[in-house]
Amino acid sequence: MSSRRTRGEEGSAVVELAWLGVLLLVPMLWIVLSVFEVQKGAFGTSAAARAAGRAYALAPDDAEGRRRAEAAARQALADQGLSGAPLTVTVTCESAGTSCHSGGAVITVHVSSRVDLPLMPDVLGGDAPSFALDATHTVPVGQYQEVE
Questions:
Q1: Mean pLDDT, rounded, for 58-67
Q2: Distant-in-sequence, close-in-space partners of 138: CB < 8 Å, separation ≥ 6
Q3: HSE value, Cβ hemisphere, 13 Å, CA-based, for 132
């Protein structure tokens, strides 16, 4: 008399739930990390535009202002942990005079950058997926200027 036990499916739900949990958790983790990276980049780009506008407005002339604006924007991005991010700083102004630093001028700084999305292997080929960011800041120059 041989008794044969049939194997049931006890415990298989736990295994299936574990696999399903891992399969859903990995993409969700990537989405959350990507959102944090993009938010960090957006905050850094906004701070870079604001800092570049202030640096340009406080410079003694337009050439020095462009140099200071770029340096201030790079520093603002570096403060957010984006020191290696590409950066484009564009400065325009509306002025009745010949200089952007004359009284009544309005300086507009546009900063463009991008952040790479995290955890994307190079095995997939091509460049890492990235998210483009830009910010604009406008600085009015006061009507009355100190004359030396």
A1: 90
A2: 53, 106, 107, 108, 109
A3: 3
